[in-house]
Amino acid sequence: MASNGHKKTYNVPAQDPERVHGNHINGTAEEILARQCIVELCKGWPVYRDFSEWHNFRSLFTRGSAYVWTAWSGPLPIDEFISACIQGRAHGDFIAHRETGTLANVNLNVGRGIGKMKATVTQRFTIQDIPVDIDCDCRFIFFCRLEDGDWKVQYARVFYEKDKVVPVDGKTVPEFPKDVLARYTSGYQYLAAAQHALGHEVLENLPDACNEGFFKMYDAMADWLEGKQVDLFWDKK
């Protein structure tokens, strides 16, 4: 006989979390073009960043005060983020992104847009002399605005939804200490533990599929589309 109790599972909330929708499909020619420009900005992350095309990558962002958040970097101004990426790559950090779907919302009345890119972050590690890939399914959120008539990214943050360890040889994986995994949410436990082992000061409690950060992100996305100021600096290392 099935239990009447309901065990809470880690999952995306069943109810729609988006309170401001903006224009997301169809619309005027101007709205369609704006959304396409924002989609191009989103797709520039994997295409340019993954292959060190730093000039092209920098061109995606506003000239000043643009910020990027990732698990390993925390919040950094875009130019500092690029410098950190260059340094990490020179020291062997091998990170790539598989984009799986991208759409955008716009509010032309305030010159604001939100880009949403589903992607898998995949990073190669050697842990306990065992080569593995750690794959993390994510949603990259790009807070975009018009700058001198061009769409640019002001802020980029990420939902870390779920991750896994992929054995390179198809069978061998390292052991991860449970106390280390427990520091992070279910969305990016293994990725965070492995990045921490490389010496990165990884942020804890980043937005995942249903935590407090999830709802803070959706509130910020709604405020951004309404033309309000947003504060995305809530994390602690």
UniProtKB/TrEMBL annotation:
Xref: InterPro entries: NTF2-like_dom_sf (IPR032710), SnoaL-like (IPR037401)
Positions of the SnoaL-like domain: 30-155
Residues annotated as transmembrane: none
Chain spans, region Disordered: 1-20
Residues spanning the signal sequence: none
One Pfam family hit: SnoaL_4
Protein name: SnoaL-like domain-containing protein
Species per Swiss-Prot/TrEMBL record: Aspergillus versicolor CBS 583.65
